[in-house]
User: Fold this.
Amino acid sequence: MGTAASLQDRMIEALQSVIDPELGIDLVNLGLIYGMSLTDGVATVTMTLTTVGCPISQVLENMIGTALEKLPEIDEVKIDIVWEPVWSPSKMSRYARVALGYHMG
Assistant:
């Protein structure tokens, strides 16, 4: 169990290096990563985007692949973009809300 948890932690750490070019905050703190799994060296990242038809989705997919493939356990990365649940600023971490000056009532 320890190995799986540490791999999950390292995957999250790798994804924290992927910065949304428009917002300047990483995908984890933006709350865009909904889940991750690894099967036979293939990492699947379930995520959403801040907007449908996000013009930088391909850029983000490439950045995610590059970040995760640095981990020795990962040979290939698949991105599963979902629109449910819909992303909203409430999914951001406190850090992201403060950094973006987003105040929630």
In short: The CA atoms of residues 12 and 101 lie 24 Å apart. The helical segments are 2-15, 27-30, 57-68, 94-99. The mean pLDDT is 90.
